[in-house]
């Protein structure tokens, strides 16, 4: 997204977060821009029963939590490290100054936010109207483009756990497992050493 050099030039600091550590909580007022150096971060909510719904998963060089930062609104979800993660953190005022001084970076941020908005629009329709197999394939196909899943002789390795697929599509993990097996039988997905390929 934004180069480390440019972020550090504007005062960004690197911080390590342990697995399952909260980076910011739902309801907090944003004060920083966050970009992943290494690791994986999820934005999620929990319902009254404690069931998790994942809004998005973010990887190396991706940023997260910007919409509330621009709107000066409370975070609508928690940001939690899925694994040990190093994150660049830049104060809001410094971030806004960086964007003012670098129009090309501003365009990049707009494209990034548009991509996420498009994904949310597509998935909202999927979750409300489509069958499990269709939802899962839509998520996987989006992941191939957006998350740059690695490709080898077996196809694209889908870097989501069954639980994450469930949490991203609003499905129970048992339903995800059944749907993936059905898609494998239809020749749409491959399962090799418990890993899913498209």
From TrEMBL:
It comes from Flavobacterium hercynium. Keywords: DNA-binding, Transcription, Transcription regulation. CDD domains: CAP_ED (cd00038), HTH_CRP (cd00092). PROSITE patterns: CNMP_BINDING_3, HTH_CRP_2. This is Cyclic nucleotide-binding protein. GO terms for cellular component: cytosol. The keyword Membrane does not apply. The lineage of its organism: Bacteria, Pseudomonadati, Bacteroidota, Flavobacteriia, Flavobacteriales. Residues 17-116 form the Cyclic nucleotide-binding domain. Residues 130-198 form the HTH crp-type domain. PANTHER family: CRP FAMILY TRANSCRIPTIONAL REGULATORY PROTEIN (PTHR24567), DNA-BINDING TRANSCRIPTIONAL DUAL REGULATOR CRP (PTHR24567:SF68). One of its GO terms (molecular function) is DNA-binding transcription factor activity.
């Amino acid at each position: 997204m934004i180069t480390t050099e440019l972020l550090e030039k504007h005062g960004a600091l690197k911080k390590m977060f342990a697995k399952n550590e909260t980076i910011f909580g739902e309801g907090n007022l944003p004060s920083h821009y966050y970009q992943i150096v290494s690791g994986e971060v999820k934005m999620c909510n929990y319902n009254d029963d404690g069931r998790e719904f994942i809004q998005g998963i973010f990887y190396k060089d991706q940023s997260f939590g910007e919409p509330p930062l621009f709107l000066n609104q409370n975070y609508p979800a928690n940001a939690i490290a899925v694994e040990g993660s190093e994150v660049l953190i830049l104060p809001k005022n410094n971030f806004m100054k960086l964007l003012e001084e670098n129009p090309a970076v501003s365009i990049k941020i707009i494209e990034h936010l548009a991509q996420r908005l498009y994904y949310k629009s597509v998935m909202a329709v999927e979750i409300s109207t489509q069958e499990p197999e269709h939802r899962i394939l839509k998520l996987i196909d989006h992941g191939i483009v957006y998350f740059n899943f690695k490709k080898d002789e077996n196809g694209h390795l889908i870097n989501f756990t069954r639980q994450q697929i469930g949490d991203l599509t609003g499905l129970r993990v048992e339903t995800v497992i059944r749907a993936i097996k059905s898609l494998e039988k239809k020749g749409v997905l491959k399962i090799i050493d418990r890993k899913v390929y498209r």
